[in-house]
């Protein structure tokens, strides 16, 4: 130890007010200024103390660790990955705390030598804590709609804490905020403010269920649930399904991959705020677990079961439901029944042309193309064989037939045999089928194929008649919007689609 250093007993500092110096020479050297420096170094500032006090008062839990011991006994904080870059420009709109200092205004952080460079110092991790709950920060150049045709950069404002961590050779900005505040923001950007309050409440519970289940899954470190096979490949068959990939450095991202989150850039609608507030802490549960509350645009009259779209693990609350007041579900796994069902227009909540209701669910709804309940696509032999060859990278020759080998309970095909003059091949599940038979994707895999204009036994025209939009599992968004407009309560809407589930309040 150099002569400039002092030896003090660390335990004594914990107790506060008493400083024990084991070496006599230190006792004679120490000054009030040095003692002040020691305390500054090892204790929190008055401002930090305020932050912690405020957080305890608000009932926020302080760390993910504590949440693990007793999941969600109070409102948890969610971490949202916002943006990453070599250099980030941000503005603190109120005083924030970082590295023991109060900071405000414009800040620049950049990636440097494996760390974060800020105000001339390198950090491994940098957190800006808001002392007040109304504090916010603004980030430049946040990309929204990543990899979609509407991708653009925007300046966005976020409430709560900003954490900066190193991710590869970039700095990643993570926003940490209370779950309920996050939900207000995502539901405001997903749903129209003109939606019925009951529909918004149902949606709030679905979003909350999805979010909390996602947070629990990430924190449980149970890799078995994460690491499942998502395809089966044989010489003559490819059965594949696409599920949500989890993030590792944060709970959810701010893009459509999870739920689009734009912070408080746009004010939350008061209708949405009310829906979130009145359902605070409520989630869908089944057998002691938060439900995997899937939803899609339009079921087509009967909702699909989980295992026909994703892995073969049926969920008790994701069973086929007739989307109407009547309860009897027709057997649509039978080919003749499926044909009759898809080529007719049975009554259903989602069988609607009500523009006011459709506008609540369909963001860019075009009145001319409201053909999702029953739809039709036409291909010539050349169009279809070219398309399938492009999509599968296999040469089938001419397409002779498309044969459904298995249908789910909603009539959606989960295994389809493509028969060509040169070869045959089986594909599944629903999304793989929808992508293979369209430049983008078909509305759904609940379809029947009509072949015509045969030349030497080979059909020259194909008419695909289909039902519904999306995978059809869980809540039918258009059906739910109709139910909300018809005066059904949010719990009636949810329990219509998630049969046997319960709505539980996880925290106050
Ligand atoms: Zn994501
Ligand atoms: Zn429906």
SSE inventory with pairings:
Layout: H1 10-15, H2 24-29, H3 32-42, H4 46-58, H5 64-69, E1 77-85, E2 87-98, E3 101-112, E4 115-118, E5 121-123, E6 125-128, E7 136-144, E8 152-159, E9 161-167, E10 170-178, H6 179-190, H7 197-219, H8 223-226, E11 231-234, E12 237-240, E13 252-253, H9 270-278, E14 282-286, E15 289-290, E16 295-296, H10 335-342, H11 355-361, E17 374-380, H12 381-392, E18 399-407, E19 413-420, E20 424-428, H13 430-436, E21 447-455, E22 458-467, E23 475-476, H14 477-485, H15 490-497, E24 502-505
Parallel strand pairs: 1-13, 12-20, 16-23
Antiparallel strand pairs: 1-10, 2-3, 2-7, 3-4, 4-5, 6-9, 7-8, 9-10, 11-12, 14-15, 14-24, 17-22, 18-19, 19-20, 21-22
Helix pairs in contact: 6-7, 6-9, 7-9, 7-15, 11-14
Features:
six-stranded antiparallel sheet, 24 strands, 15 helices, 508 residues, five-stranded mixed sheet, alpha+beta, 28% helix, binds zinc ion
Structure report:
The chain has helices at 10-15, 24-29, 32-42, 46-58, 64-69, 179-190, 197-219, 223-226, 270-278, 335-342, 355-361, 381-392, 430-436, 477-485, 490-497; strands at 77-85, 87-98, 101-112, 115-118, 121-123, 125-128, 136-144, 152-159, 161-167, 170-178, 231-234, 237-240, 252-253, 282-286, 289-290, 295-296, 374-380, 399-407, 413-420, 424-428, 447-455, 458-467, 475-476, 502-505. The chain contains 15 helices and 24 strands. The model is unreliable at 60-69 (pLDDT under 50). It binds zinc ion (ZN) (2 copies). One zinc ion is lined by residues 298-299, 323, 348-350, 476, 479.
């Amino acid at each position: 130890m150099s002569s400039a250093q002092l030896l003090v007993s660390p335990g004594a500092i914990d107790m506060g007010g008493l400083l024990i110096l084991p070496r006599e020479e230190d006792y004679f050297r120490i000054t009030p200024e040095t003692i002040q420096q020691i305390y500054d170094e090892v204790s929190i500032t008055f401002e930090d103390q305020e932050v912690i006090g405020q957080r305890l008062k608000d009932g926020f839990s302080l760390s993910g660790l504590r949440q693990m011991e007793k999941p969600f006994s109070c409102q948890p904080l969610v971490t949202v990955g916002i943006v990453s870059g070599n250099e980030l420009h941000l503005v603190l709109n109120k005083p924030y705390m970082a590295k023991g200092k109060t900071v405000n205004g414009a800040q620049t952080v950049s990636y440097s030598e494996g760390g974060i460079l800020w105000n001339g110092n390198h950090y491994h991790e940098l957190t800006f804590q808001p002392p007040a709950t109304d504090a916010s920060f603004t980030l430049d150049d946040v990309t929204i709609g990543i990899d979609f045709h509407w991708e653009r950069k925007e300046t966005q404002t976020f409430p709560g804490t900003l954490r900066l961590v190193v991710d590869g050779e970039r700095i990643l900005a993570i926003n940490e905020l209370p779950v309920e505040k996050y939900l207000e923001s995502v539901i405001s950007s997903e749903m129209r403010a003109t939606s019925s309050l009951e529909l918004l409440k149902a949606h709030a519970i679905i979003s909350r269920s999805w979010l909390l289940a996602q947070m629990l899954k990430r924190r449980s470190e149970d890799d078995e649930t994460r690491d499942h096979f998502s395809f089966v490949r044989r010489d003559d068959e490819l059965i594949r399904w696409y599920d949500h990939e989890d993030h590792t450095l944060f709970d959810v991202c701010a893009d459509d991959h999870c739920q689009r989150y734009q912070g408080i850039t746009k004010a939350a609608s008061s209708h949405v705020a009310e829906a979130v507030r009145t359902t605070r802490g409520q989630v869908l549960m089944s057998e002691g677990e938060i439900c995997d509350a899937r939803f899609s645009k339009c079921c087509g009259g009967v909702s699909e079961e989980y295992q026909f779209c994703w892995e073969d693990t049926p969920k008790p609350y994701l069973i086929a439901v007739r989307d109407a007041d009547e309860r009897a579900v027709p057997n649509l796994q039978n080919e003749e029944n499926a044909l009759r069902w898809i080529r007719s227009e049975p009554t259903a909540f989602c069988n609607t042309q009500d523009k006011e209701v459709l506008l609540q669910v369909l963001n860019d709804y075009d009145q001319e193309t409201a053909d999702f309940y029953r739809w039709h696509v036409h291909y010539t032999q050349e169009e279809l064989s070219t398309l399938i060859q492009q999509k599968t990278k296999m040469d089938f020759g001419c397409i002779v037939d498309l044969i459904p080998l298995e249908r789910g309970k909603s009539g959606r095909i989960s295994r389809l045999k493509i028969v060509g003059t040169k070869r045959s091949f089986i594909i599944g599940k629903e999304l793989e089928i929808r992508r293979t038979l369209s430049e983008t994707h078909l509305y759904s895999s609940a379809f029947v194929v009509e072949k015509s204009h045969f030349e030497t036994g080979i059909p020259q025209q194909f008419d695909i008649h289909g039902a519904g939009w999306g995978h059809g599992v869980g809540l039918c968004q258009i059906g739910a919007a109709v139910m909300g407009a018809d005066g059904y309560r949010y719990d009636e809407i949810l329990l219509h689609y998630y049969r046997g589930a319960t709505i539980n309040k996880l925290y106050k």
